[in-house]
């Protein structure tokens, strides 16, 4: 969990003041072009103003691009894409701009035709082609062009989603990338392993990508897998402890962008994670939270990765696990008044908080999502099991008299007192303002769920069910949404 409080020590009338730090939103930079060729060019501009050597691959030849990245890294050469039959205009101009003298084409003529090679030669550039009759042979030939190493990366040659995150690691360490099928080790790959003196291998992907029969034929293999492409990328970053001071973010379905982005990440000594382009994936959120990542480079324009994802990355709540506890449930109705059951009000507001936090990129976890009862101890245990960063219990207030009214937020000083108080202070004024209720302030109380939760914890009393005016608001969806928005906004503000 991030550190949110810094201590500012100063003498003022003999007192020592403790002042919370103001954390800014995360940093997000976007690099992209109008198409795959232009995106590769824009990425190359982040590194190169000139380059004597460039590596060119077919814009849809993903296996060639994957195997080419470690070679391009060793050659200190930008990775550029082209059409199959004609040199892409953007790439042609970029080669001129770079004053390139030598081009290495990776891939056979089905991927990059001889016409393209000749067009490059006509620019006064020397051309060398590394290509085989298959993706396996091409990768093996690329490996031979690289400096000697005893380790290789093994990928399924048809499962491109497994590749982007490992490409950065392979490039930085000088490891060739070789391909196989899920159930058979191709002869070109087996020969490359032998001839290059490969003594150990990293197999990327689960058994659906490369089964155990193939795995056991490889020298000293270790496997990195995940339940999907997003989790796999996150697991690669986690298991290999890759740098995360400026994580690059690619679309897990746009392989041309994510592979080129992986090369930029390698050049920047950074890692790459994946999302679906429309919403930040759970795997990405988890690694962001666990590594406290706050700086990102998004690969591709808005058409590749939506602004929604960029905004989630900017939000300081991204990747934080927020435990939302709707009070009461089932046989425990909580307070009753003015035609309302507290348990129903709590759950409605909590679901809205959950939706809003999820949309902001957090990892919300609810103690209950339906009319179920859990003991106070069970709620505390659930939050601990979820490794929650914050605990927010949602309630509605009540009194024997119908007069008391307004909103208030509680914290307990047993654990995380300073941070709990700060969270309460961020939520409370927003709650009263949004609901238009009396601001009853931030208070302390030893409520079980906030006393025994070891993470920063608050208990929010949205309004009084037993007061007619407050209850009239708790009956309306618009006000329940305003309450949820206040809790959401207060939580985000806590991280700023």
From TrEMBL:
Keywords of the record, alphabetical order, are:
Hydrolase, Signal
Leader sequence segment: 1-24
Q: Does the keyword Ubl conjugation apply?
A: no
Transmembrane stretches, start-end: none
What InterPro entries does its record include? Bact_Sporulation_Assoc (IPR051922), Cell_wall-bd_2 (IPR007253), MurNAc-LAA_cat (IPR002508)
List each copy of the MurNAc-LAA domain by range: 380-492
- Write the Enzyme Commission number(s) for this entry: 3.5.1.28
Enzyme type, top EC level: hydrolase
What would you give as a GO molecular function for this chain, any one?
N-acetylmuramoyl-L-alanine amidase activity
**What's the superkingdom here?**
Bacteria
Identify one Pfam family in the record: CW_binding_2
Q: Which PANTHER family does this UniProt record tie to the protein?
A: N-ACETYLMURAMOYL-L-ALANINE AMIDASE LYTC (PTHR30032:SF1), N-ACETYLMURAMOYL-L-ALANINE AMIDASE-RELATED (PTHR30032)
- Protein name from the UniProt record: N-acetylmuramoyl-L-alanine amidase
Q: What organism is recorded for this protein?
A: Bacillus stercoris
């Amino acid at each position: 969990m991030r550190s949110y409080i810094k201590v500012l020590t100063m003498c003022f009338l003999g007192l020592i003041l403790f002042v919370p730090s103001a954390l800014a939103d995360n940093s997000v930079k976007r690099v992209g072009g109008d198409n795959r060729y232009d995106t590769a060019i824009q990425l190359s501009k982040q590194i190169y103003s000139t380059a004597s050597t460039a590596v060119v691959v077919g814009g849809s030849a993903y296996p060639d691009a994957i195997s080419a990245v470690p070679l391009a890294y060793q050659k200190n050469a930008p990775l550029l894409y082209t059409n199959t039959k004609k040199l892409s205009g953007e790439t042609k101009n970029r080669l001129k701009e770079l004053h390139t003298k030598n081009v290495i084409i990776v891939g056979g003529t089905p991927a990059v035709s001889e016409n393209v090679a000749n067009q490059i030669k006509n620019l006064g550039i020397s051309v060398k082609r590394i290509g085989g009759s298959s993706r396996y042979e091409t990768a093996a030939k690329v490996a031979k062009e690289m400096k000697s190493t005893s380790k290789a990366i093994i990928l399924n040659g048809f499962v491109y989603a497994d590749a982007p995150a490992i490409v950065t690691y392979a490039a930085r360490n000088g490891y060739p990338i070789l391909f196989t099928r899920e159930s058979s080790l191709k002869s070109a790959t087996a020969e490359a392993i032998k001839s290059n003196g490969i003594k150990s291998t990293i197999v990327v992907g689960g058994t659906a990508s490369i089964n155990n029969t193939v795995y056991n034929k490889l020298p000293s293999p270790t496997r990195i897998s995940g339940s999907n492409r997003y989790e796999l990328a996150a697991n690669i970053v986690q298991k290999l402890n890759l740098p995360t001071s400026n994580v690059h973010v690619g679309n897990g379905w746009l392989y041309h962008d994510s592979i080129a982005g992986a090369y930029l990440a390698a050049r920047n000594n950074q890692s790459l994670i994946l999302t679906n382009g429309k919403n930040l994936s759970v795997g990405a959120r988890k690694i962001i939270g666990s590594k406290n990542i706050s700086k990102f480079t998004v690969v591709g324009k808005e058409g590749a990765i939506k602004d929604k994802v960029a905004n989630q990355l900017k939000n300081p709540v991204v990747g934080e696990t927020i435990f939302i506890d709707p009070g009461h449930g089932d046989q425990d109705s909580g307070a009753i008044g003015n035609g309302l059951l507290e348990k129903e009000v709590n759950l409605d507001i909590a679901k809205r908080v959950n939706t809003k936090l999820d949309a902001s990129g957090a990892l919300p976890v609810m103690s209950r999502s339906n009319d179920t009862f859990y003991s106070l101890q069970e709620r505390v245990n659930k939050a601990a099991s979820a490794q929650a960063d914050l605990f927010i219990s949602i309630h509605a207030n009540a009194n024997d008299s119908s007069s008391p009214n307004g909103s208030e937020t509680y914290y307990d000083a047993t654990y995380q007192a300073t941070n709990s108080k700060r969270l309460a202070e961020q939520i409370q004024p927003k709650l009263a303002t949004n609901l238009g209720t009396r601001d009853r302030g931030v208070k302390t109380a030893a409520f079980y769920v906030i006393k025994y939760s070891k993470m920063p914890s608050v208990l929010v009393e949205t309004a009084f069910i037993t007061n007619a005016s407050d209850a009239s608001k708790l009956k309306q969806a618009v006000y329940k949404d305003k309450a949820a928005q206040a809790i959401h906004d207060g939580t985000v503000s806590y991280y700023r």
